[in-house]
Design brief:
By secondary structure, this protein is α/β, with parallel strands linked by helices. It has 9 helices and 12 strands.
Length: 268
């Protein structure tokens, strides 16, 4: 489908009318209008959001806040389906494989920035398989460390990591965040092991228990353990948030690590 057609179906409001006059030598030879094309109302049934992250992630929370409003507006159920893993490939493949205009990808734009640099062969072609429909939210990213370490700032962690090379573990969201995070550690000369997680939300309890010493993820899953004094958030991305009183990563002295997560809706 063309982008204009897809947008018309998504807005549920646009209609197209085709009427033309054939001309010969600059003069109309027929004024008879062609048939009017009316796109079918959308949605006609359940709408499914496929999310590349697990329950409790920033994108998951925003999708579940948004879906009741859309359900009321559209008059059809909106189902949120979590498909974490494989650096968002699991969700993207489920979306493209559905070949269904009622199945949408609710995912991070950063995935499509990072994938060409991480994989020789992709199972999708972005320009062919995905139509960007709308920006939905900007996820607040955060860096957290175990409260038990006694570190108060991001600079404290850097000093601690330099004093303990090869002894610390880290985790981050796969894709662009991971590239930024580990690029930052390399520039700082930190020897910190990377622990892969199928779903970054699963790393947060390990952070609270001290099995992981630093995590970069969305702020949302870190907040409960921060409130329980298990995790200390030492910096947030992009700009300060009223949710928790901590400096931005740039204010903490490390602008190269500062970024936010752009979430959007994609259709076929």
């Amino acid at each position: 489908k063309s982008p204009s057609r897809s947008r018309a179906r998504m807005s549920c409001a646009a209609s197209t009318s085709v009427g033309s006059a054939l001309t010969l030598g600059g003069r109309p030879v027929s004024q008879k209008p062609l048939a009017t094309a009316q796109p079918a109302a959308w949605p006609q049934r359940n709408v499914r959001f496929i999310i590349p992250f697990g329950p409790g992630s920033g994108a998951d929370i925003s999708a579940r806040l948004l879906s009741p409003r859309l359900q009321q507006k559209w008059g059809q159920p909106v189902v949120v389906e979590n498909r974490p893993g494989g650096d968002a490939m699991v969700a993207i493949n489920a979306f493209t494989g559905a070949a269904d205009d009622h199945t949408l990808l609710y995912g991070a734009v950063a995935s499509f920035v990072a994938h060409p640099y991480l994989y020789d062969n992709l199972s999708y072609i972005r320009e062919r398989d995905l139509l960007a429909i709308a920006r939905v939210s900007v996820t607040v990213m955060a860096v957290g460390v175990p409260e038990a370490l006694g570190l108060k700032t991001l600079k404290d962690f850097v000093a601690h990591a330099r004093a303990n090379p090869g002894k610390l573990n880290s985790a981050s969201v796969q894709g662009m965040s991971e590239i930024i995070f580990h690029g930052w550690m390399k520039r700082e000369g930190l020897d910190v092991s990377k622990v892969p997680y199928r779903d970054i939300v699963q790393a947060i309890p390990d952070l609270g228990e001290g099995r992981i010493q630093i995590v970069m993820s969305s702020l949302a899953p870190q907040l409960p353990l921060a409130a329980a004094n298990k995790v200390r958030v030492v910096g947030v991305g992009n700009q300060r948030t009223p949710v928790i009183d901590v400096p931005t990563i740039t204010e903490a002295g490390f602008p190269a690590l500062d970024h936010a997560g752009l979430i959007g809706l994609f259709g076929p």
